[in-house]
Amino acid sequence: MRDRELQKAIIRRRRVAALVAAVAVGVVVGLVLVASRGGGGAPRVVPAVDAPALVTSLPLRSAGDGLPGTPAPLDPHDVYAADRPGQLSPAVRFDRPLVYVPNSESATVSEIDPASRTVVATLPVGRLPQHVVPSWDLRTLWVANDAGNSLTALNPRTGRPGRTVPVTDPYNLYFTPNGRFAIVVSEALSRLDFRDPQSMALRHTLALPCSGADHLDFTASGRYALLSCEFSGELLVIDVLRQRVAYQIGLPAGSMPQDVKLSPDGATFFVADQTQGGLFEFYAKGFRRRGFLATGAGAHGLYVDRASRALFVSNRRAGTVSVVSFQQRRVVRTFQIPGGSPDMGGLSADGRELWLSGRYNAEVYDIDVRTGRLLARIPVGQGPHGLCVFPQPGRYSLGHTGILR
Prior knowledge:
Radius of gyration: 19 Å
Oligomer: single chain
Shape: globular
Distance between the termini: 41 Å
CATH class: Mainly Beta
CATH architecture: 7 Propeller
Helix content: under 10%
Structural class: mainly beta
CATH topology: Methylamine Dehydrogenase, Chain H
Number of domains: 1
CATH superfamily: YVTN repeat-like/Quinoprotein amine dehydrogenase
Largest sheet: 5 strands, antiparallel
Strand content: 35-45%
Number of strands: 31
Number of helices: 1
């Protein structure tokens, strides 16, 4: 009975959130999108007023404090230096290239051959699959079956399903940078479950003082993570070593933060906000607000290019993808997806194509990142969400749809 009630609660909260976002786009977007237009229509960064930050009893240490066991970066100035085109780990070198698409409303995963751009298999999984997540060691792809209260393992060598592990409310899944824990983001229950990364046995549960926990990313040292809370419109700083909440950060009224991504130099966190239509920027050291960058309505997913020069931002309600220059801190290009709803995804191993799910259109988009041309719209199941392109360059995975370092 409890599982059925939890499933209903998850589905109900996601539907309400979608309705709230649709209304809020036209109501609160003016609170932050005050950036003036210039230089070919690209918005400039406008400093935002700091919202109140609520500090817990835990002292916030320097972002430079490390997490024991975290691999040293290949380049101290670029956390994504291992993600260059073709730099595949020996663990994935012989894996079958596929695009994995969790169809939330169909309870399936579509597998797309990226060469032919066709669906080659459709796998039944648990209820409400949200994301397909590479494990820390890159040897397993986990399907997070949110309402199904389970994780389904896929073999990336073949694309075939394996075991299904009971896990409560796995909306999203991450791994600590040292590989010692899996972190299940339990959205409906407002908690983070720290689990064994292989067996998924529960080790520790961290209750969260927010609602709608969704996405996170880690500081360069791995000591802290910045977590978005969609429904309560705030961010949490997680002390990964102590597995405690270190800091709460308020956002403007009506905010619904989504994906989180660290800049290549490790200095700035970008947080997509779908109602504010852009990216909040926070210093990774001290977690103070740095600014706001307008991109488009429904700003949602964030993806770093293979050269560590640009950030791709999927604007789900605008039907666009913004290309943000890290150096210039502004939008330098905008790709159009007419009538589309670009959501989550990732880059091809060679970095030439960006694959995104079309959340409200039951399709997947393949975009040429050099020209912005839409190469294909591929029909899949209903409600495609956290798409994963695999294999990808990198030494280890931090989770989500493929954050590799």
